[in-house]
Amino acid sequence: MVPQNNNYLLKPIVFQGPCKSNVTIQIEGTIEASTDRSDYSGAHERNWLMFQNVNNLIVEGGGTINGNGHLWWDLSCTTNKTPSCITRAPTGLSFVSCNNLVVRNINVRDSQQMQVMFVNCNKVKAYNLTVTAPAHSPNTDGIHVTHSQDIEISNSVIGTGDDCISIVSGSKNITATDITCGPGHGISIGSLGGGHSEAHVSDVFVRRAQFYETTNGVRIKTWQGGVGEASNITFQDIEMHNVRNPIIIDQNYCARSTTPCQEQESAVQVRNVLYQNIRGTSADEVAIKFDCSHSVECEGIVLEEIDLHIHSHRRNNRHNNRGDGDTEAVCRNIHFTNIGHVFPLCPNY
């Protein structure tokens, strides 16, 4: 129990199972991360609060977990190019190898790096969460899922400096419903296949999400040179509000690269992706971007009832050669089907 109206300053800690009985962590007050960076060394270099191998765990209570991330953000090599910059900061709240897990009614804010992470977890329900960090905070993914399956994320508000939700290799049967995202980089599958690795993500269902002025809406991103597959993915009933890249598949992803990736002969396959009932406004004229690999093309892509127009402020304050002031689609190396009303259309369809 973390009592209401109390504030606790906490050093890095691991709650290690297995436990003899079921455990509930009731957070009603506030837990704050230690402000002494020297506390984060050795085994604690990458995590602040970790629950490991604790089954049937419930974390709840309406309280706040505050990572005091401002102590780390200015030192990140993402934004700080000095020799003394740091490449990695601790994750705020981590669950590792926890099965039958419930995380609900918790406020997570200002984590040092990733905010909430599920690693090698099965049967997780995470809902009624508020996960926030400033838009400028580097690598502060709201909820990160890796090597986990049967994960349900719902009824949550997420605004960070990176992906609101990121789903990476080894993840299967992931559902995200009723998500409000912004600021941030959207909901991302990937990146996948970095360093010529093998990656697999399947059976992802995102429904009833709202994006507000995010860098991306729904994104799939893979590195060239990797292998594997991202498949059976549905994005349904989604609203975009002044989003820069509402719908994007990028198989030529290069983090922090200033030049295009060199095309390679292998890539993570992207197939069987449904975009259904996605509407709203784009901050850029390219509202749909499918930049797929020339060697491993995107297959089975379906767009149904899509309506994405340029945001009114953007339309009123720019000039373009097309004269219509509206959105367009850029589509490379993709096999797709349109159903019903789809705007904008891929060229030459």
- Give the strand tally: 25
Task: Calculate Rg over CA atoms.
Answer: 20 Å
Residue fraction in strands: over 45%
Largest sheet data: 14 strands, parallel
Number of helices: 2
What report would you give on this structure?
The radius of gyration is 20 Å and the shape is globular. With 349 residues, the protein is an all-beta fold. The protein contains 2 helices and 25 strands. Residues 319-323 have low confidence and may be disordered.
Features:
349 residues; mainly beta; 2 helices; 54% strand; globular
SSE topology sketch:
Blueprint (H helix, E strand, L loop, with lengths): L6 E4 L2 E4 L6 E4 L3 E4 L13 E6 L4 E4 L3 E3 L3 H4 L17 E6 L2 E11 L6 E4 L2 E11 L10 E4 L2 E11 L5 E3 L3 E11 L5 E6 L5 E15 L3 E7 L4 E17 L1 E6 L18 E14 L3 E6 L6 E13 L1 H5 L11 E5 L1 E10 L6
Parallel strand pairs: 1-4, 2-5, 3-6, 4-7, 5-8, 6-9, 7-9, 8-10, 9-11, 10-12, 11-13, 12-14, 13-15, 14-16, 15-17, 16-18, 17-19, 18-20, 19-21, 20-22, 21-23, 22-24, 23-25
Summarize the model shown:
The chain is mostly beta strands and 349 residues long. The protein contains two helices and 25 strands.
